[in-house]
Amino acid sequence: MAQKRGLLLVMTGASGVGKGTIRQELEKTEDYYYSISWTTRESRPGEENGVHYFFKTRDEFEAEIHSGLGFLEHAEFVGNHYGTPRAAVEEQLSQGRNVLLEIEVQGAMQVKKAMDDAILIFIMPPSLTELKNRLVGRATEPLEKIEKRLSKARGEILMAHEFKYCVLNDNVERAVQDIQAIIRAERLSAQRLTDEELSEIVQH
């Protein structure tokens, strides 16, 4: 029997909503390939190249864009480029392994157009006030940049209906459980049954 294609899970939401924390907790129970994005932004304290992101220069990133081969999606967010290398994602999916993308909303919308089987999950903050508190508490950016992120977040939240699922992150444990439920449901989707599998069932 042919190898069934893995699930492509696209987790997105406003900056500071807790995507990274949810992913780290999800890793404890789910086996998946985490696609590490390229970015042109500066690394934050504690971040490592090739672990959190591949930190690239603007020239390196733009050269990859113009090659026409390098990214499944790419977007510019608050003055920095972000992108998902395409080849590794396709390889893992074809081998039957689930793939998780943790990306910005612009990039998620590109994946939605490029990959019919992408499962888009929007992580929702309890409120904009709580989102601001999280960004301020992170203490990695000046207030001016945080306000730009919040302005962007308002528009992104209003786009939530564009995604297949919306998970409220008012409690990390519950948010992880919701995503686990999504994964279970998608694995059981009749749309993932192949003609070969159906034929084998009726022949026995």
From TrEMBL:
<keyword id="KW-0547">Nucleotide-binding</keyword>
<feature type="binding site">
    <location>
        <begin position="13"/>
        <end position="20"/>
    </location>
    <ligand>
        <name>ATP</name>
    </ligand>
</feature>
<comment type="similarity">
    <text>Belongs to the guanylate kinase family.</text>
</comment>
<keyword id="KW-0067">ATP-binding</keyword>
<dbReference type="InterPro" id="IPR008144">
    <property type="entry name" value="Guanylate_kin-like_dom"/>
</dbReference>
<keyword id="KW-0808">Transferase</keyword>
<keyword id="KW-0963">Cytoplasm</keyword>
<protein>
    <recommendedName>
        <fullName>Guanylate kinase</fullName>
        <ecNumber>2.7.4.8</ecNumber>
    </recommendedName>
</protein>
<dbReference type="Pfam" id="PF00625">
    <property type="entry name" value="Guanylate_kin"/>
</dbReference>
<dbReference type="InterPro" id="IPR017665">
    <property type="entry name" value="Guanylate_kinase"/>
</dbReference>
<comment type="function">
    <text>Essential for recycling GMP and indirectly, cGMP.</text>
</comment>
<dbReference type="InterPro" id="IPR027417">
    <property type="entry name" value="P-loop_NTPase"/>
</dbReference>
<dbReference type="InterPro" id="IPR020590">
    <property type="entry name" value="Guanylate_kinase_CS"/>
</dbReference>
<dbReference type="GO" id="GO:0016301">
    <property type="term" value="F:kinase activity"/>
</dbReference>
<feature type="domain" description="Guanylate kinase-like">
    <location>
        <begin position="6"/>
        <end position="184"/>
    </location>
</feature>
<dbReference type="InterPro" id="IPR008145">
    <property type="entry name" value="GK/Ca_channel_bsu"/>
</dbReference>
<keyword id="KW-0418">Kinase</keyword>
